């Protein structure tokens, strides 16, 4: 597999928006049309871009506190962590109830521990009912 690298960095938001537009178009196509286009687009060369993005430096102590407080149980679905790390620690991910990118704080009051599925659910759907449940769990 080869990479086709473009030299000028672009904002990550622009790249993500372009991907979302293509995904919406693809979702409306029939399986037959998807296959035809995918076969036409198949290539040994994978394109890549340098992107610029903001990185938020999170406090490792806040994240660890949220995970330990959860005691191996997802604070959204209530199920045990789906697997353990190689060190035997139940795998949960720290989630900021009010996202840092939206002005949320990196505090123990704004963090919870979620299983990978619920963490992704929060970043895809961010349902008000789930957010309210997490606010209560964070207290």
Automatic annotation (TrEMBL):
<keyword id="KW-0540">Nuclease</keyword>
<dbReference type="Pfam" id="PF01844">
    <property type="entry name" value="HNH"/>
</dbReference>
<dbReference type="GO" id="GO:0004519">
    <property type="term" value="F:endonuclease activity"/>
</dbReference>
<dbReference type="InterPro" id="IPR003615">
    <property type="entry name" value="HNH_nuc"/>
</dbReference>
<keyword id="KW-0255">Endonuclease</keyword>
<feature type="domain" description="HNH nuclease">
    <location>
        <begin position="61"/>
        <end position="120"/>
    </location>
</feature>
<keyword id="KW-0378">Hydrolase</keyword>
<dbReference type="InterPro" id="IPR002711">
    <property type="entry name" value="HNH"/>
</dbReference>
<protein>
    <submittedName>
        <fullName>Restriction endonuclease</fullName>
    </submittedName>
</protein>
């Amino acid at each position: 597999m080869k990479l086709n690298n473009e030299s000028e960095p672009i904002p990550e938001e622009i790249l993500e928006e372009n991907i979302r537009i293509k995904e919406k178009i693809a979702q409306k196509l029939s399986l037959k049309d998807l296959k035809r286009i995918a076969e036409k687009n198949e290539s040994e060369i994978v394109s890549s871009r340098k992107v610029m993005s903001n990185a938020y430096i999170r406090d490792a102590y806040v994240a660890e506190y949220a995970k330990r407080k959860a005691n191996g149980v997802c604070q959204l679905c209530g199920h045990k962590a789906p697997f353990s790390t190689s060190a035997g620690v139940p795998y949960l991910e720290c989630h900021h109830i009010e996202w840092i990118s939206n002005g949320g704080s990196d505090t123990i009051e704004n963090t919870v521990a979620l299983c990978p599925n619920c963490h992704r659910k929060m970043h895809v759907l961010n349902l008000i009912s789930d957010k309210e449940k997490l606010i209560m769990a964070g207290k």
